[in-house]
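#struct-help
A.M.: can someone run this one for me? Single chain, 227 residues.
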Amino acid sequence: MATEPGDGTGPPRPGPGSDLGRRLARRREELGLTREETAARAGMDPGYVAYAESQAGVVPMEALTGLAGALETSVPALLGGGTEQPPGRGSLARSPVLEDLPLAECREKLAAGGIGRVVFSRLEGPEAVPVNYAFMGDAIVFRTAAGSALAGVVGGDVAFEIDRIDEARNEGWSIFVRGVAEPVTTPQEQERLRSSADPHPWPGGDRDTWVRIPVGTLSGRRIRSGL
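D.P.: on it. Structure tokens below:
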């Protein structure tokens, strides 16, 4: 399918200057595809894939449908449908297979960084808090605010979890870590982390308390289609 910006059938879609371009690029990177490989799958010119991921113009429905097929997802997913809903509401994978992940793959997925959940106990009961994290020296590191509940986990047993749900393929994986939370207090170590792997907490604000969770036990599971 050869197409130019603005042609095709159906109403034009919002330009990638909204969030579409970022979703296209993120999904392509998740699949490990180059723009050229994505274009070959979609039957379009690589330049158009670059255009769709840029800040320019609109993407017609015909092109968007081709890109969704090439990226093994759906048009609503690329347009951000369901972003206010929890993941995993789709149907089961066909002949689902649940398998353990090798430790090397668990570490590889942790090394990508991003958002995970710190699980710990309080007087009120268990709690799970999402954090932006980095994986350095076989340890989870994150920043939080002084006096926060997360700052209070130092010295205690905690768990840490990341996961990924692929709604289009009804597949996913999760990684689970247990360890003892430690403070990162020396200015030299804080500066090293800040310059090499700063997780940049999304909430912003003054979050200069560094916490490290060395990996004690590590496990991972994946559910996929057996067909």
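A.M.: thanks! Strands lie at 96-100, 114-122, 125-136, 139-144, 157-166, 171-180, 182-184, 209-214, 217-225.
D.P.: also worth noting: The helical segments are 20-30, 35-42, 46-52, 61-70, 75-78, 103-111, 187-197.
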